[in-house]
Specification:
The protein is 22% helix and 43% strand. It is α+β, with helices and mostly antiparallel strands. The strands form 2 sheets. The chain has a 9-stranded mixed beta sheet, with helices on both faces. Strands 5-6 form a two-stranded antiparallel ribbon. Strand 7, helix 3 and strand 8 form a beta-alpha-beta unit.
Length: 155
């Protein structure tokens, strides 16, 4: 289990949930990929448990240095997950063969998402994955009060 913390807030997920998607992508393409993350909150919204990393929608576009997540089929997926008490928590994407550092574009996009009422997520999580098949690394960011904060990994 991977755990990240900022102040009193914690984000947890199983690395295996995302690594299979990332490794398949790295084997087939040098392009960035990404998608949405879903799960739920516990402990008075102080702990987010990511249950699922969803791959790119069919209208997503990735290049070696840029990724734009599409929307096709996303609404239907979210409605299906809501019935299972699994909710939109944020976004993830891969920086292939590079560091997992959020770019200015990444930070701007997650801030925009935090303001969009249709997401119902004023504090979205952004997970950037970097590296290669043998050495994946993660950075986790969280929007709090319209500021993107980097979370620290804990054991």
């Amino acid at each position: 289990i991977k755990k990240f913390v900022f102040n009193t807030l914690t984000v947890e997920f199983h690395g295996d949930n995302i690594e299979n998607i990332v490794i398949d992508s790295l084997n087939s393409s040098p392009n960035e990929i990404g998608g949405v993350i879903t799960g739920c909150y516990f402990c008075d919204n102080k702990k987010a448990i990511i249950k699922s990393f969803h791959g790119p929608t069919i209208d997503s576009v990735g290049t070696p240095y840029n990724y734009v997540r599409g929307k096709k089929g996303l609404s239907a997926l979210m409605q299906k997950l809501w019935k299972k008490n699994e909710y939109y928590l944020g976004e993830w994407h891969l920086h292939p063969f590079s560091l997992p550092t959020a770019s200015n574009t990444d930070l701007t996009q997650i801030l925009e998402i935090s303001k969009m009422t249709q997401y119902r997520c004023p504090e979205p999580i952004l997970i950037i994955i970097g590296g290669d098949i043998k050495n994946l690394s993660y950075n986790v960011y969280l929007v709090i009060n319209q500021v993107v904060e980097k979370m620290e990994e804990i054991e």
